[in-house]
Design goal:
The protein is an alpha/beta fold. α1 crosses α2. The radius of gyration is 16 Å and the shape is globular.
Amino acid sequence: MPSAIDYQSTLLSQQIFRETMNAFAHPMKCHDISGCIGDGPDAAILALCSVFLDNTAAFFAYGAGDLAKTIEQLTYARPSELAKADFAIIQGSGFSEWGSIYTGTLLDPHKGATVIIEAPKLEGDAQITASGPGINGEAQFYVDRQIADCLQETAKLEIEYPMGFELIFITKQGKLIALPRRVSAKGEGM
């Protein structure tokens, strides 16, 4: 018979999954998984990785120090070059390889990567306008400058739909927002 810890772990994983799916259904709205994550500086990213990565997934980690090794040990996912990764995990600033993230193909657009980006905070003074599924018309959001910069870089790629990649922005405290590939975001300079 499974222990109470196994049930608790399963319930927490289900909560993380539900909150993340809700974040995709309601783009740019803040969701909270803080009650589902452990302690430590990488707990929020590791919680997402433990839910979405497994031994069939390839991942690329940027600026993450020992995080890549921890993800590999936790999930059995295999490290990969960015162009072949199912998941790209980005910590810190300075990432410039947006054009190398796998966007799927016209025959298999669903194979585009999911990009998990650790942001210092979600809300800020950078105004963006988003539109697409899950957003009634166009909506204004105020986000952290790092998030706005990421959105600006991805907008420059001009990826042909249905290809693309999903974005999840998460803080160390477990707050997250998501942006599916069908949602477009514009802001200053975009």
